[in-house]
Specification:
Elements (H helix, E strand, L loop, with lengths): L11 E7 L9 E6 L4 E8 L2 H19 L6 H22 L7 E10 L2 E7 L3 E6 L2 E4 L6 H7 L5 H6 L24 E6 L4 E6 L1 H4 L4 H10 L4 H14 L6 E7 L8 H19 L1
Antiparallel strand pairs: 1-10, 2-3, 3-4, 4-5, 5-8, 6-7, 6-9, 9-10
């Protein structure tokens, strides 16, 4: 049985979603439950009401399963995402206007000093610690897979014309919890001096990971402001998609020393300059 209750009351948390500058509707959704240690970002697929409906179903089904404290966190995450998947598919089959709807999602469940991460698609979870940012999830997309394999740089992947294609989603075909090549589940340490950031691709397609890292660290202790600035950065870069960000800070998360930030910035700048040469 999972043992993540109660979650650490000293965690700092913020989350927000914005339609962006191009789209009028918001197909993203989020859910945060600090008491139970559940954090979820969903990006609906299908356009207009269909994408929003897929995201709504996903949030409801994932919440319902994760809030039942039976089984290990890994089992609960797999079952929760599968329940969302099959319910979205049933709803689409029963409503012609929702045909083809689906979603991608990333969820984290805190459990005894670690985070159990469930993931399908191209939303993301990053971990920020000691002046470094690490992408925990793998993109289930042709371009994202090439980026993860270091065949494309982050900059190249962000500008690629096929960036938004995914080969895994929640809702387009029936699944069981243990189906191969469906849900990516992993357990990662969640140290008290680290932060976890979940986001839709409305952020990661517009804002480079080093900017995400610096924004979170610059606002350490004030996750609401960090989230506000990240959404603002995505919109300033074009805001071509809905953008959703959830940020969870450990109780000891702080910005790295100024000297370390300066050195890191210099290395990052040199790498970006060499990329353009």
């Amino acid at each position: 049985m999972g043992n993540e209750l109660p979650a650490n009351p000293k965690l700092k948390l913020a989350g927000a979603s914005d339609p962006g500058r191009v789209r009028h509707n918001n197909e993203d959704a989020l859910h945060v439950d600090l008491e139970r240690g559940i954090f979820l970002v969903v990006d609906g697929i299908g356009g207009q009401a269909a994408g929003e409906k897929a995201a709504e179903i996903a949030v409801g089904r994932v919440r319902a399963r994760l809030e039942r404290q039976t089984g290990t966190p890994e089992q609960r995450v797999r079952e929760a995402i599968t329940m969302a998947n099959n319910e979205i598919l049933r709803a689409a089959r029963g409503n012609p206007e929702w045909e083809g709807m689906a979603c991608v999602l990333t969820v984290a469940v805190l459990d005894d000093g670690s985070a159990v991460v469930g993931h399908v698609g191209d939303s993301r979870l990053y971990q920020i610690r000691h002046g470094e940012i690490r992408k925990i999830t793998h993109d289930h997309s042709p371009v994202g897979e090439r980026e993860d394999n270091h065949e494309l740089s982050e900059e190249e992947a962000m500008r690629h014309p096929r960036r938004n294609e995914v080969f895994r989603d929640v809702g387009s075909e029936e699944h069981s919890p243990d189906d191969a090549d469906f849900i990516e589940v992993q357990r990662v340490p969640f140290e008290t001096d680290s932060a976890l950031l979940l986001c839709s691709d409305g952020l990661s397609d517009q804002v480079a990971s080093w900017v995400i890292q610096e924004t979170v660290e610059r606002n350490a202790g004030n996750p609401d402001e960090a989230v506000r600035q990240l959404i603002g950065a995505a919109n300033a870069a074009g805001g071509k998609d809905n953008v959703t960000v959830v940020l969870v800070e450990g109780e000891s998360f702080t910005a790295p020393p100024a000297s370390a930030v300066a050195a890191k910035r210099e290395v990052s700048l040199m790498a970006r300059v060499s990329w353009f040469v």
